[in-house]
Design goal:
744 residues, alpha+beta, Gyrase A, domain 2, Multidrug efflux transporter AcrB transmembrane fold, Alpha-Beta Plaits, four-stranded antiparallel β-sheet, 19 strands
């Protein structure tokens, strides 16, 4: 029974909510509360930030000391942004780039001048005439601190709120601190915390602390004071002592053009998706488009609220999510049209469409969400940022499709828009013999896998590397070039410098950033030979009237550390195992799970082939691209497996299985094609309009989308059938042998 008032109320509520989110996202409520879109933190590539260079006090630090120091500095820099970059320059310098920060002094004050941190028992310390602490024995050092952070708690006596510092020690530190506090606790003796020769704090030990968790309390008037001590303790945990030699504010590496072209690509792609959905699905397409607007504005607000730092790959990823967000709607609408074809009423078809699509949507998104959770827990830096955005997109897309779209459709129906012509009827599709052609499909996939292996071997023979690793993976050379005051540094000039570096280095992997408040450029490129460095330096000097001695050149290490690489690989492996277990549990058949994971590996190999053939630079976006393909591909596979599970029933013989697989893939074919098209729109726009770095991200994604669609339609179902049939034959043979043995 139609309820127009209820329909109007639902539609009004959704439009008002969308309007409020849009206002919050794009306009804001006052000068101090601007729109969320303007408050989102942007990465170093989009908005610039602070660049700080430290040098070790020790002349010749070991490789291990430098490696450990870089790892610790990376953790601290990520307090400001997960997109922070820490690299080694030469043999004793560390350069830190922190995006989204405009005040270098503020960062330096917070980070502190890197010095030693010691915990010293009261019995082991004396003070000279200038009150400088003198000691030779320590309880433990900054190396034993796992974490230090400010917090609030209730005072046990006064019951008032107090500010404290919570300390967490590592395994060695826990043991050392337990021994020291056991000696100090009976007499309530102090343990001094000394940073770079100055006493930061001298708390009295109240109890023996044996679990590695301590709380410093009683001396902080404000939270800021507690936070400052926590920060100084964290900073003092470095293996080597550092001194700051340079700090500067740098401009965006890519500039406003990169943002503008990406947003333009997003706007055009969004428009194409809306038009496609309305033309193909009519009224439900309108509902999906409204839900998509809701999704987009909520996403912008969420990015601001969660304080996520957005880099250009992140922008591209969100634009890609717009295409992927309609996936659930496509599944639902296809189901609705199928029910209408069976003669069901519009109201029943809407209900059944959502009900029957629910399992595929939930299973598909949960498998991807599992990957996001694993990546966030295990990953670091850009991987953790990518995982956050991925998880947020999954949750929002599920909510908008299952709740917002449903409310809009039901509201429109209640308002009298109930004619079948507004919804369309799914045409009966003739069964396609996918199983019959499985040998051809396997041959094509096998050829692509072999081609990938061959190209990797060829690349390795030519250059010593299987892929064209960029700055992020290999490190390179950085140039600090101070130009004369009369040299105008604009977009054209930076392109001219970029071309110069590309021509001499032979690589298009060049990153340029302006140094704020000066006429200086920082240019990063691949590792250059001594001859290339001399050629570049002399060319810059003669062409732009720059003194050769004023040009500073340093070798820089990779920003993607070995630990980050291993974390990424381990994360993907763990995510694949978790997805396999979930699919096994949900489908009650490990063959479904195994087929899905094998299809994922197939898609990853195909994208690797594109990287190998095109020689696109492999950097941080490579990791993001591969993870996106994994999430995208598993979603499409789950939809087909869900339909196989639904159609399977009790039919288990070979002929019936073949019919089930052919029917299931045929029935979901329109969904597979339509979802690929909507995502394709978004990524093609990025490839056509985006700057080089975005294009390098979009082209492999295009290959992944095409390959993911192919594997989902042509490989997963046929692979499941092939394995299932093989297992069934073995099972039958075994049973037959068991019977004959019993008779004998």
């Amino acid at each position: 029974m139609k309820n127009k008032k209820r329909g109007l109320l639902h539609l009004f509520f959704i439009l008002v909510a969308t309007g409020l989110f849009a206002f919050t996202a794009l306009v804001g409520f006052s000068d101090s509360h601007r729109g969320s879109a303007r408050n989102i933190k942007l990465g170093l590539d989009l908005a610039g930030g602070v660049s700080i260079t430290y040098q070790t006090v020790k002349d010749n630090p070991s490789d291990t000391e430098m490696r450990d120091t870089i790892a610790m500095m990376q953790d601290r820099a990520e307090v400001y942004s997960t997109e922070s970059s820490v690299v080694q320059e030469g043999n004793n310098r560390i350069s830190i780039d922190i995006p989204g920060v405009e005040n270098a002094d503020e960062v330096l004050e917070s980070l502190g001048k890197e010095g030693s941190l010691d915990f010293v028992a009261a019995d082991d310390i004396t003070f000279d005439e200038n009150n400088v602490p003198q000691y030779t024995k320590t309880v433990c050092t900054g190396k034993h601190i796992k974490n230090a952070e400010a917090a609030t708690q209730q005072d046990e006596i006064t019951k008032n709120k107090e500010y404290v510092v919570q300390l967490t020690f590592n395994a060695k530190g826990t043991k050392k601190f337990a021994e020291a506090t056991a000696e100090a606790a009976p007499s309530k003796k102090q343990i001094y915390i000394i940073y770079d020769g100055n006493v930061l704090s001298a708390p009295r030990v109240q109890d023996e602390i044996s679990d590695g968790h301590a709380v410093i309390s009683g001396s902080f008037a404000t939270y800021a004071e507690a936070d400052e001590l926590a920060s100084m303790i964290r900073i003092g945990a470095l293996p080597v002592e550092l001194k700051e030699i340079q700090s500067q504010v740098v401009g965006a590496q890519l500039g406003q053009d990169a943002i503008d072209t990406s947003l333009m690509a997003g706007a055009i792609g969004f428009a194409l998706v809306v038009i496609f959905m309305i033309v193909l699905y009519r009224l439900p397409g309108v509902a999906a488009s409204l839900a998509l607007v809701f999704y987009l504005v909520v996403m912008i607000v969420a990015l601001n609220v969660l304080d996520i730092t957005l880099t250009l790959p992140g922008v591209a990823g969100i634009i890609l999510n717009i295409g992927m967000a309609v996936d659930a709607n496509v599944i639902i609408f296809t189901r609705i049209k199928e029910e209408l074809r069976r003669g069901k009423s519009v109201q029943s078809s809407i209900k059944l469409g959502f009900d029957k699509a629910l399992s595929a949507i939930v299973d598909g998104n949960i498998t991807t969400l599992i990957a996001a959770v694993v990546l966030y827990a295990k990953g670091s830096g850009t991987i953790k940022g990518f995982a956050t955005t991925l998880a947020m997109g999954i949750i929002l897309s599920m909510f908008t499709s299952l709740v917002i779209t449903k409310l809009i459709l039901n509201a429109m129906y209640s308002l009298g828009i109930d004619d079948v012509k507004y919804f369309g009827i799914e045409k009966e599709r003739k069964q396609i013999a996918f199983i019959k052609n499985k040998a051809k499909f396997f041959l094509i996939s096998g050829a692509m896998i072999v081609a990938c292996i061959v190209m990797l071997v060829v690349n390795n023979a030519r250059s010593g590397y299987i892929l064209n690793y960029g700055l992020d993976f290999m490190g390179g050379t950085t140039y600090d070039i101070p130009f004369s005051a009369d040299q105008e540094i604009d977009g054209d000039f930076k392109k001219e410098i970029e071309s110069l570096f590309m021509n001499i280095s032979g690589s298009n992997d060049v990153i340029i950033a302006e140094v704020a408040g000066s006429n200086e450029l920082t240019v990063k490129t691949v590792e250059l030979s001594e001859e290339q460095r001399k050629t570049l330096t002399s060319t810059i000097s003669s062409t732009y009237n720059v003194e050769e001695d004023s040009i500073q050149i340093q070798s820089i290490s990779a920003s993607v550390s070995d630990e980050m690489k291993s974390d990424a690989v381990i994360s993907v492996i763990i995510a694949a195992i978790c997805m396999l277990i979930y699919i096994w549990f949900r489908f009650k058949d490990i063959i479904f799970a195994g087929s899905a994971v094998l299809a994922l590996l197939h898609d990853v190999v195909c994208v690797l082939l594109v990287y190998a053939v095109t020689r696109i630079s492999v950097g941080n976006t490579f990791i993001a691209c591969m993870l996106t393909i994994v999430g995208y591909s598993i979603n499409a596979t789950i939809v087909i497996f869900d339909r196989i599970r639904e159609n399977l029933g009790t039919r288990t013989n070979s002929v019936a299985l073949q019919e089930v697989v052919n029917d299931s893939i045929t029935q979901t074919l329109s969904r597979s094609i339509n979802t690929s098209i909507t995502t394709f729109f978004m990524v093609v726009m990025l490839a056509v309009l985006g700057v080089d770095s975005v294009r390098d991200f979009a082209i492999p994604l295009l290959a992944g989308i095409i390959c993911g669609a192919y594997s989902s339609v042509c490989i997963t179902g046929t692979l499941w059938y092939t394995i299932k049939k093989t297992v069934s034959k073995k099972s039958t043979t075994t049973k037959s042998k068991e019977v004959s043995i019993k008779k004998a």
